[in-house]
Design goal:
- It is a single chain.
- The chain is an alpha/beta fold.
- It is 44% helix and 13% strand.
Length: 484
């Protein structure tokens, strides 16, 4: 029998969050990192009468080495965070194509709101209601899902059956302890600074390449009554982007890696973390972020709204914003939005610290399968169906073409070579030039530490605690997680 006691994972979730109802980038972040908005939504198509069941192999299996699917009626529950178009329509299209080929199989697709998604998933697991397919961002949580018994090991299936030729980094992020646990389905997701080209041109502002130059740009914008950064930090992970980049520019990956293991003096109070925290709080005091930054919601696109009306000039965010903004108003996007990488730390660079670490993910999101019978054995018929859906419909030509049109680059080899949108091309080019792509902290850290980290971002931007104090909080959480 699989272990359904989620140990630290559940204990921490329940202690830090109150859940009401069912909760990315999105064009993915989020991260989808998480730009999708709205409450939970369900898109379900009823199974056809048994007399109309598809043949044992649908048209997608023609000429391909794929498992043969059952002809018996079956219902599969799928959770994702695609609450906002274009992603919502793209994901629903994949499901509809699958059900057209296999009318005996019903996919109960539930769209969850990004901000509460991970907590909602854990609550579902703890109550025996875990969906059969669910999306996630990899990292520590994916490992927890597997260790807690809610993720099928698909290593053998992946080696035996056809699948897209995913980029190596995407396969690595879908793997834990040598086991393939997810199928990438979203895309390469970088994180850079979107800016209003029109405002910059009118004020004679050049794109900054160093943090000092960035601060000079912020002062110029403030002088002209414009908020430098549009940030909606009620979502918490949005503020973490600034924290992550400042840490990376000050120390590369060295100090984060050490803090993660808590070995050899590693700590979230090390110089890079203090530098990042002090810089953020200095920027808050100088008015570089909107008033009430911790009350603004990224799920409601309140950060985008400040860009749209000209109140703010820059926004550090994931590349899913390309598709999101274009979907809102493509003409405005084309006329006004440019992008640049997070500027370098000149002093750290002079000391030999690499400046080409990028924040993001190689998978965007992954689909993991929870196909078990009541006795704990694998429901192979359901697992086969989930595998075909994820590899042949969420990654088919139609899906990938729609992803590219929406501004997302699939995590499949070759798709980075023909990108039309100049901003997306810039982001992906920087992604491939990076010495390392640091997965979002709130995805990489153990689940219990993630919640503490996100709460620390509220405290940091709200000037409630010092960088030293939030570092100590994160250290305590990390040490507890490592011990347990």
């Amino acid at each position: 029998m699989k272990n359904k006691v989620l140990a630290v994972f559940l204990a921490t979730i329940f202690s830090v969050t109150a859940l009401v109802g069912c909760g990315n980038s999105s064009t993915q972040a989020p991260a989808d990192g998480g730009s999708d908005k709205g409450a939970s939504q369900t898109a379900t198509t009823e199974a056809a009468p048994s007399g109309e069941a598809a043949a044992s192999t649908g048209k997608q299996t023609d000429g391909k080495n794929l498992p043969e699917l059952t002809t018996e009626p079956m219902t599969i529950t799928l959770w994702d965070i695609s609450t906002e178009d274009p992603n919502k329509s793209i994901s629903e299209g994949a499901v509809q194509r699958f059900m057209a080929d296999y009318p005996n199989i019903t996919i109960n697709q539930v769209h969850q709101q990004n901000d509460n998604y991970k907590q909602q998933l854990v609550v579902a697991m703890s109550s025996g209601q875990c969906p059969n397919i669910y999306c996630h961002w990899g990292g520590g949580p994916m490992a927890e899902y597997y260790k807690s018994g809610f993720a099928n090991d698909i290593t053998d299936m992946y080696a035996k059956y056809d699948h897209p030729e995913f980029v190596d980094a995407a396969v690595a992020q879908s793997t834990y302890d040598g086991k393939m646990l997810a199928i990438p389905f979203s895309g390469l997701t970088g994180c850079d600074i979107f800016y209003n080209k029109t405002i910059f041109k009118e004020l004679g502002i050049e794109v900054p390449t160093t943090i000092d130059e960035l601060e000079a740009v912020c002062e110029k914008l403030k002088e002209n009554g414009i908020i430098p950064f549009s940030l909606a930090n009620a979502s918490k992970w949005t503020g973490s982007m600034y924290y992550m980049y400042l840490v990376a520019r000050h120390s590369g990956n060295a100090e984060f890696d050490a803090a993660y293991t808590q070995e050899n003096g590693g700590s979230f109070t090390s110089p890079a973390f203090i530098f990042a925290g002090e810089k953020i709080q200095d920027w808050v005091k100088k008015g570089y972020f909107p008033d009430g930054v911790n009350s603004l919601s990224a799920d409601d696109n309140q950060d985008r709204a400040l860009l749209y009306d000209g109140s703010a000039a820059m926004m550090l965010h994931g590349s899913w914003q390309v598709g999101g903004i274009k979907s809102d108003n493509e003409e405005w996007y084309n006329e006004n939005i440019g992008v640049f990488r997070f500027p370098e730390d000149s002093e750290a660079k002079a000391a030999g610290v690499p400046q080409n670490v990028e924040i993001g993910t190689a998978i965007g999101m992954g689909l993991t399968f929870n196909c078990f019978k009541s006795d704990g054995s694998v429901d192979q018929d359901m697992l086969d169906a989930c595998y075909v859906l994820a590899t042949q419909y969420f990654n088919d030509d139609t899906y990938n073409e729609q992803q590219v049109a929406a501004g997302t680059v699939p995590s499949i080899k070759g798709f980075n070579e023909n990108i039309d949108d100049p901003n997306n091309k810039y982001i992906i080019d920087e992604f491939f030039k990076a010495s390392n792509v640091q997965l979002w902290y709130d995805q990489y850290l153990p689940a219990s530490v993630t919640e503490v980290h996100k709460n620390c971002m509220t405290e940091l931007f709200g000037l409630e605690k010092t960088p030293e104090e939030i570092g100590q909080e994160q250290d305590a959480a990390m040490q507890k997680a490592l011990t347990e």
